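Input record (one chain):
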Amino acid sequence: MAIAVATTRQALADAYKNVAGSNTVYISVHTADPGTTGANEASGGSPAYARKQSAWTSGTGGVVTGSQVTIDLPAGSYTYVGLWKTLAGGSADFIDKVAISSTTLGAQGQLLITPTFTQS
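The corresponding structure, as predicted from the sequence alone:
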């Protein structure tokens, strides 16, 4: 059932925004389903792959949007993006995941990611 009241949807979206304990999250990229632990995270490359910090901003009607990040990736196929509480933390710091359209890089490249959460 969808939530009919826009202010309630926004309150829930803002709660999601603060799951990390602040409005900051770290974005990761994965070669396969990360499950509930953040498995299959990308690695390697030059410049080297690393999670990137994104800051959430509130929208209206149940939407929060993070700042766009640019992630350096080595050649390979990427199918998921993850959210983390910390830059380098382990599975206890993994927050959430989302499947993306499979992206294959034939050489070192970059992926631009703008996280968005919509509460319906």
